[in-house]
Write a structure and sequence with these properties.
370 residues; Rossmann fold; Tyrosyl-Transfer RNA Synthetase; 2 domains; two-stranded antiparallel sheet; binds tryptophanyl-5'AMP
Length: 370
């Protein structure tokens, strides 16, 4: 998994990711045009994140669709490690999960791994990760999920339900498997060593196959789960992976909740968003306006353009116009940034309202151990 050019693990992403190489390294499948068309046909709708290959890779998506066409439903599962406030990169798999849920009419489980972030972050206390679990849950609920078919699992709250499944999984994974996949050493705490079995547990909550929309960095956990599944008499989880939203500083790192300046949180104020974009967003423009007008900019490396493409401008025509205008030099970096700032702030204004409303709804979403 580790190579000199880029690194992708559940706890560390570094360097400019070559997604075709990553598919080979992880042993996943690229989402072909044919598969994309098939999803579109069965869903009866298209999603810009599929069309633009923001979701670019999968494991066993065809199997999920084969069964669905035979009338056998799946369920959805995804999650969050509550190490801080939610950032806009986290929303990618959740927005797509909501779309899948609406189109396929299936149940959804959302796991908040307060234990994981306590194990993996030296500076965080368990009370803090648990507090963030509740805060992150608000962002998830704000995306429009309904409590009738969506449940939120918090590891330290719902351990009674999770533990028997985690125990089945844990017995089938040995220390050398975990070391090979995550590069753990003798210094790694044993919470981390056991942890994959807890992230695996929700895959087996229902007696149906599961589909997991997620960032590709989380794939290694489920590679282990998929090896274990048949050995405990369960179906292998299917996955659909999104690319990583880059940090504001651009190619060479993902947006990360612990890098405050180069991350847009869902709780940021309009002023903070404006300041961060203007100050930190990596530009594909020329050093000065005159050169920019003459030579044009490079939208393919420009972070503001990337954010519009990945999340904030679903309209293909509008996006293409921005691309063309920036590339020709008609649009300068300041103008491009202004478009992004407005889009993010419009989105956050609405999201923050829904997020506050979610405080009253959260109890209905929480999984209750029986
Ligand atoms: P976490 O909290 O690191 O991330 C939550 C989800 O967001 C994705 N993600 C990103 N996607 C795009 N751009 C980024 N910059 C970016 N950063 C993070 C992650 O891939 C993930 O899908 N251990 C997990 C929590 C978890 C989980 C799961 C995730 C528990 N069960 C099942 C996915 C599926 C974690 O710490 O995620």
């Amino acid at each position: 998994m580790v190579s000199d050019d880029f690194i992708v693990t559940p706890w560390h992403v570094q360097g400019e990711i070559d997604y075709d190489k990553l598919i080979k390294r992880f042993g996943t499948q690229k989402i072909s045009d044919q598969l994309s068309e098939r999803i579109k046909k069965i869903a009866g709708d298209d999603h810009f994140m599929l069309r633009r290959q923001i979701f670019f890779s999968h494991r066993d998506m065809n199997k999920i669709l084969d069964e669905y066409e035979k009338g056998n439903k799946f369920f959805l599962y995804t999650g969050r490690g509550p190490s801080g406030h939610t950032h806009i990169g986290h929303l990618i798999p959740w927005v797509f999960a909501k779309w899948l849920q609406d189109k396929f009419d299936v149940n959804m489980y959302f796991q908040l791994t307060d234990d994981e972030k306590f194990f993996s972050k030296q500076n965080l206390k368990l009370e803090e990760t648990k507090k963030f679990a509740f805060e992150n849950a608000l962002d998830f609920i704000a995306l429009g999920f309904k409590s009738k078919n969506t449940k939120i699992i918090i590891d330290t709250e719902n351990i009674q339900m999770l533990y028997p499944i985690a125990a089945e999984v844990a017995k089938k994974i040995n220390f050398s498997n975990i070391k090979a996949v995550f590069g753990f050493t003798n210094d790694t705490n044993i919470g981390m060593i056991f942890y994959t079995s807890l992230q695996s547990a929700p895959c087996f909550i229902e007696e149906k196959p599961v589909l997991i929309p997620l960032g590709v960095d989380q794939d290694p956990h489920f590679r282990l789960t998929r090896d274990v599944a048949p050995r405990i008499g369960k179906p292998k989880p299917a996955l659909i992976h999104n690319i990583m939203m880059p940090s504001l500083e651009g190619p060479g790192g993902k947006m990360s909740a612990s890098e405050e300046n180069t991350t847009i949180y869902t709780t940021d104020t309009p002023e903070v968003v404006k300041k961060k974009i203007n100050k930190y967003a990596f530009s594909g423009g020329q050093p000065d306006v005159a050169q920019h007008r003459k030579l044009g900019g490079n939208p393919d490396i420009d972070v503001s353009y990337q954010y519009l493409k990945i999340f904030f401008e679903p309209d293909d025509m509008a996006l293409k116009k921005i691309y063309d205008d920036y590339k020709s030099g008609k649009m300068i970096t300041g103008e491009l940034k202004a478009i992004l700032i407005e889009k993010i702030n419009d989105f956050l204004k609405d999201h923050q309202k829904k997020r506050e409303k979610a405080r009253e709804q959260i109890d209905k979403f929480l999984f209750k151990d029986s």
